[in-house]
Amino acid sequence: MSPFSSTLNLQPSFPGRAYFDFRSSPHQLSLHSSLQSLNAPVAWFAFDPGSAHSDIIFSNDNLTVTCSSYDDRVVLGKTGFSKGVHYWELTVDRYDNHPDPAFGVARIDVMKDVMLGKDDKAWAMYVDNNRSWFMHNNSHTNRTEGGITKGATIGVLLDFNRKTLTFFINDEQQGPIAFENVEGLFFPAVSLNRNVQVSGCSICEAAHGSVSLGPTLESPDQDAEERGVRGRTDVTREIIPDQQKPLHYI
């Protein structure tokens, strides 16, 4: 049994999941090709309290987040990526059909007190119970029918080989490729308010090229300080001047 099945309710066999077995377009075939290369084990992933807005509330060993404010607040994942192909999923645990949570990627210095995608440091999909939009630098594009409810799964595919970012809702691609010419260091990111709770996520990656804002966890019940960065020998440290946070480069 997968270690994720009881905690995150995720299905770990990403390369074989039906929604990547696309047939209808060259891009969908390329997505299938990308995910077929993700043969590494699924990694545990946690949200980062140190870089999050102070209104974000953490639980479940930082695998679950909600918010104390009615305004949108941003939280990042601890692990960032700069190359390779990466896919992760998040589950919507609580949603009352009114707010628009946003999911995507961001730079470390993204604004934390507005919806994800409002500034030029985030690339996101925001979604309600009927439809979604893509947003970057407060530009809203590609309205797409189909929304979320409690229990919905959001998938994010960050493909540095093709320089693209693509979104999924409940195992179906949501709209076209969301963003192209994607380059640099990105962290998984979410914005939400007090009416939304998000859990999980897992990460499946095809290549190294990740950065961690904290210890990398294989499971939430392991001692990260004792483990350190397990199995990785090429780790260096750098301090970000404005955050003063240690980064683990892989």
TrEMBL record:
SUPFAM superfamilies: Concanavalin A-like lectins/glucanases
UniProt source species: Cervus elaphus hippelaphus
GO cellular component: cytoplasm
All copies of domain B30.2/SPRY, residue ranges: 25-210
Stretch list, region Disordered: 212-232
Domain of life, source organism: Eukaryota
Protein name: B30.2/SPRY domain-containing protein
